Amino acid sequence: MMKNRLGSFRSNANLSNFSIRSLLLVGARIVLFPLGIVGVTSLIPVGQTLEGTIFHHACTSAIYREAQLRETFLVAFIDSTLVAIVVTALAIFTSTLAGHVMVISIFLG
Predict the structure, then answer these.
(1) Are 46 and 63 in contact (CB under 8 A)?
(2) In angstroms, what CA-CA distances link 102 with 25, 93, 108?
(3) Cα 98–Cα 86–Cα 63 angle in degrees, nearest 5
(4) Cα–Cα dist 33/23, whole Å
């Protein structure tokens, strides 16, 4: 009788693992779907993205070449890099301060 109970418990555990994995895969697809849409539509020429047909047109990298030829692309890239560096530095600084306060504080509870 113990084998049956353990066997049924194991099958329930396998079912639980399967359902958790299924939910994780569904969630990952939901989260990554917009990224896929952005990737596909970035390869479609300007003005043809609103027609409703994604794969009807030939996907080219002409938009990326055009963006590299513009003068403002390099400036925008440098600005984005500087903003990312400043935000990262501020996050590290505030995290360090919070960690310091946690270390020197005396918790009574």
Answers:
(1) yes
(2) 38, 14, 13
(3) 135
(4) 15
CB 41 within 8 A of CB 49: yes
The range of the structural domain enclosing residue 56 comes to: 1-69
pLDDT of residue 53: 62
Q: What is the mean pLDDT of residues 70-81?
A: 84
Cα distances from 33 to residues 26, 37, 55, in angstroms, run 10, 6, 16
Q: How confident is the model at residue 19 (pLDDT cuts 50, 70, 90)?
A: confident
Tokens of 86: 């400043």
Query: Are residue 64 and residue 75 in the same domain, yes or no?
Result: no
User: Which tokens go with 21?
Assistant: 């994995």
Same domain as 42, residue 65: yes
pLDDT for res 12: 61
| Cα–Cα distance measured from residue 44 to residue 102, given in angstroms and rounded to the nearest whole number | 51
